[in-house]
Amino acid sequence: MRTTTRAILALVTLSGTASAQQLVGQKEAVFNISERVVSGGAVRIFSRAGDITITEGSGSTVEFRGEKDVRRGKLEDIGFRVLRDGDGVTICAVFSEDDECDVDGVHGERRSGWSSNWRERAKVSITVKVPRGAKLRTSTGNGDVSVNAMLAEARVGSGNGKVRVSGISGRVEASSGNGEVTVENTGGPVRASSGNGDVYVTATNGPVNASSGNGDIHASMDKLSGDDDMEFSSGNGRIELTVPSDFSARVEASTGNGKVVTDFPIAIQGRLSPSKLTGTIGSGGRRLRMTTGNGSMEIRKRM
Question: What digits encode the pLDDT tens for the residues 154-202?
């Protein structure tokens, strides 16, 4: 009896998993689906290749549209997995029946028999309308990502493409492996990064952290909450930081080739050097660390 019970439980578990991972929309050139989410619920949109555009919708419904571009492939090369839970909805564009979808994205090996340029053979352009106040997580392996909506928070990424995020009231994480990253008109803490590209951040309320492997960083804050540290770094690029007039921090700034300038009076610690600055602005408190391998750095006062 015990063995039979275990077998039945295992069968039910496998059946539930298979159902949750059902592949839909394979035969459709354009796949549309609408899903209701609770107020403040999670919306997760993932793809291996193609642009993703997120805008604000109305009511409590997520409106998803995926338009395939299969080029030399077939419509069946792209499908979609839709997962629902008490917290919200997850929708993944997948390029293999073996691809799995979960709250962290798409997982699986590249389709057997496909060449290394499989992303050039098929992609899907995704547009989504998301309810105001939702919590968003979205990413693509290859393509641009644009988010313009009044959301509670957002985590946005691209492996290769531009990332633009606007209108988020809370925390934002935005990243690209290769492309420009822009975050603007946000009300919460921001963490933005690019492996190769400029980073632009305009926040109503900081703190902000930003980095680029190869590119300039421009960050501006209207005000700062709390006392969290901030760090800005570039392997090769200029860093320009604009902060409120009442800004205070312990500053550590250095550049391999360039100069460090500030609008604020600063109590210098150690030796004075054009390429290195260590000291205290105002009453100190949070630590501000700025580093670049090649480029000047500025700490500007917002008037």
Answer: 999 999 999 999 999 999 999 999 999 999 999 999 999 999 999 999 9
Strands 52-56 and 123-130: parallel
Using the structure block, give the residue that is written with the tokens 């050097």: 273
pTM across the whole model: 0.89
Q: Do the domain assignments include residue 243? A: no
Backbone angles phi, psi at 27, to 5 degrees: -95, 5
Phi, psi of 152 (to 5 degrees): -70, -40
Q: What single-letter DSSP state applies at residue 273?
A: B
* Residues near 258 by beta carbon (within 8 Å), at least 6 away in sequence: 238, 275, 292, 294, 295, 296, 297
| C-alpha–C-alpha distance, residues 66 and 53, integer Å | 10
Pairing of strands 181-186, 199-206: parallel
Single out the residue of 63, 68, 34, 35 nearest to residue 51, CA to CA: 68
How many domains does the chain contain in total? Answer: 1
Domain assignment of residue 224, yes or no: no
Expressed in percent and rounded to 5, the helix, strand and coil fractions of the chain are 10, 50, 40
